[in-house]
Amino acid sequence: AQSVTQPDIHITVSEGASLELRCNYSYGATPYLFWYVQSPGQGLQLLLKYFSGDTLVQGIKGFEAEFKRSQSSFNLRKPSVHWSDAAEYFCAVGGGSQGNLIFGKGTKLSVKP
Amino acid sequence: KAGVTQTPRYLIKTRGQQVTLSCSPISGHRSVSWYQQTPGQGLQFLFEYFSETQRNKGNFPGRFSGRQFSNSRSEMNVSTLELGDSALYLCASSQVPDVGEQFFGPGTRLTVL
Fold first, then answer.
1. Which is it for strands A32-38 and A44-50: parallel, antiparallel or unpaired?
2. In the list A33, A40, A59, B66, which could disulfide-bond A63, CB 3.0-4.6 Å?
């Protein structure tokens, strides 16, 4: 079955520290992979996407993610977290003949001053 | 270019009533998908429309229905509301299906009393 697992429900990091949010997926075909961010009461904003090619993808707001096929992972990273990064982050997989996205349960990020 | 718009933003209904939510996609986008977001179940796919045809449907009861108009605007309807239908309903649009990159609206917060 197709699924996305985000093992960490809640992560707290200090401002200025590095961040890595984990995402593992199960998908039959070559996946399209996405990271979205959601601020409270808001919709989802696309941070970055992977379709093919270079396995390290750059996104908005200084985020990057690395696709590792052998580990079925697509972890999100940021070298230095800002207080404004506090939000919930969702990893998603989809594309191809299946037009809908399958989301992980999300990781809530808190940032300590 | 304007983003995805959803109306209304907030809605309060009572059990047994029915509700219609509206979504206007980004100009030029012809594919619209709907998702339900709840704290317990996370983000779940409802259905996807392209060129006024439902292409894909998630695992929801028949009380949930939708349609798409010739201008790509979409509506979803929930009949005989239950308390468990309280959720944030998100609409997403993309230029065409199968590409995977979807742009989300701010959502409609439905509360069923």
1. antiparallel
2. A59
User: Given its phi and psi angles, is residue B16 left (phi above 0), alpha (psi -120 to 50 degrees) or beta?
Assistant: left
The answer to whether the Cβ–Cβ distance between A95 and B99 falls below 8 Å is yes
CB contact under 8 A, A42 and B56: no
Decide: A36 and A90 in contact? Cβ < 8 Å. Answer: yes
A46 in B contact zone (CB under 8 Å): yes
On whether any CB of chain B is under 8 Å from the CB of A86, the answer is no
In the prediction, which pLDDT does B31 show? 92
pLDDT at A41: 80
**Minimal Cα–Cα distance from B65 to chain A, Å?**
16
CA distance B17 to A22: 41
Does A104 touch chain B if contact means CB atoms closer than 8 Å? Answer: yes
Angstrom distances, CA of residue B70 to CA of A99, B3, B29, B49, B73: 20, 19, 12, 11, 7
Q: State the nearest Cα–Cα gap between A29 and chain B, in angstroms.
A: 13
Which one of A34, A45, A99 has the shortest CB-CB distance to B97? A99
> Cα separation of B56 and A39, whole Å?
28
**CA-CA distance, B47 to B49, in Å (whole number)?**
7
Q: What is the pLDDT of residues B70-100, one digit of tens each?
A: 999 999 999 999 999 999 999 999 987 766 6
List the single residue in A with minimal CA-CA distance to B41: A105
